[in-house]
Amino acid sequence: MPHSLPAEQRHLPVLRDRCVELLLPALQHDGAVYVDGTLGMGGHATAILDAAPQARLVGIDRDAQALDLARERLQRAGHGDRITLVHATYDRIPEVLDDLGLPGAAAILLDLGLSSFQIDTDERGFSYAVDAPLDMRMDPDSGGPTAADLLADLPEEEIARILHDLGDERHARRIARAVVRTRQAAPLTRSAQLVDLIEQAVPAVARHRGGHPAKRSFQALRIAVNRELEILVDALEGALDALLPGGRLAVESYHSGEDRLVKTAFHRRTTSSAPPGLPVELEEHRPRFAALTRGAEKADDAELARNPRAASVRLRAVERLSIPS
Ligand SMILES: C[S@@+](CC[C@H](N)C(=O)[O-])C[C@H]1O[C@@H](n2cnc3c(N)ncnc32)[C@H](O)[C@@H]1O
Fold first, then answer.
1. Residue of the CA atom closest to atom 5 of ligand 1
2. How far is the CA of 32 from the centre of ligand 1 (A)?
3. 11: nearest Cα among 87, 86, 94, 111
4. Are 169 and 163 spatial neighbours (Cβ–Cβ below 8 Å)?
5. What is the pTM of this model?
6. Which atom of ligand 1 is nearest to the CA of 309?
7. Which residue puts its alpha carbon closest to atom 24 of ligand 1?
8. What is the pLDDT of residues 18-72, one digit of tens each?
9. Ligand 1 centre from 287 Cα, in Å?
10. Among candidates 257, 231, 298, which has minimal Cα distance to 167?
11. What residue's CA is closest to ligand 1, atom 20?
């Protein structure tokens, strides 16, 4: 994809209008703080600032290139004077607010995973469809290990566990065995090498079933390289704690492992902590949050026709109740 394209054309925000609808009631007062923990191309953020003229944005992303493109977009949309953009991971929302001298957030959005901009930037190595270095870091400046480093250093059992648990790859063991056999001769450094290896490792029938045979392994490696699930666990607790009374948090997941973590964190905060059998619920056991969505919401057919990325989305949202804690 040409690098000159503006952010608007690089990523279609998923369930944009529904996210605006869920968060807007919390953003009706002057200076209301909306934290976008996954700013990306700023699609959701622009729509929310358009709809909430009194709100200001604290936009966070671990990808510095995304922040630059989002800044240009938000400035073009006329929102330049009410944005603060921070290069960080979203588990740091409480510290970021603290550093800015803000007591908390009125609304927070986490739209997890990758943006189309990242997938379409060949040299980042996220795509199995083009040959590129096996990098896959969302923050290439982080100094953390790349996908090539994981494939070079991890034991076979750990590679198999990653492919199975984070990619639902049925042939994880075969692929891990092939990785270890191949790396004894030469390191795996390019995405095309990994695609070839996977195509050879999986049984012939599996090559033509369930999408591209490398799709699940690439997803699994990306999640592992970026420590996505570990960071999400901390981020959910931090974001819930950072909400002011009446504040709202919406999370969009694209993978069953992510959605399970969101569901568990939200369930714990929206249900009573009273031990079963107590005749009355004591104040300290009352939930401090209420669910705004019934289960997980999905994209409808019209959105799926416009935006295939929306196929796997699961949206959940909660509100912090205005009761003294
Ligand atoms: C699906 S995109 C967000 C798209 C955005 N909502 C929009 O409308 O343009 C996800 C973004 O979150 C960022 N991201 C993923 N994990 C992150 C983390 N742990 N901390 C901060 N940003 C993260 C990615 O770099 C990517 O830009």
1. 40
2. 22
3. 111
4. yes
5. 0.95
6. 1
7. 114
8. 999 999 999 999 999 999 999 999 999 999 999 999 999 999 999 999 999 999 9
9. 29
10. 257
11. 89
Q: Which residue type sits at 214?
A: A
Which residues in 47-206 belong to E strands, given as ranges? Answer: 56-61, 83-87, 105-111
Q: Which residues contact 109 (CB under 8 A, 6 or more apart)?
A: 19, 23, 34, 35, 36, 37, 38, 44, 45, 48, 249, 250, 251, 252
- Locate 12 and state its tokens: 């279609």
Q: What is the mean pLDDT of the chain?
A: 94
pLDDT in tens, 119-162: 999 999 999 999 999 999 999 999 999 999 999 999 999 999 99
CB 84 within 8 A of CB 109: no
Kindly tell me the sign of the dihedral angle through the C-alpha atoms of 257, 316, 227, 214. positive
Beta bridge pairs of residue 72: none
Query: What's the rounded Cα separation, in Å, for the pair 244 and 319?
Result: 9
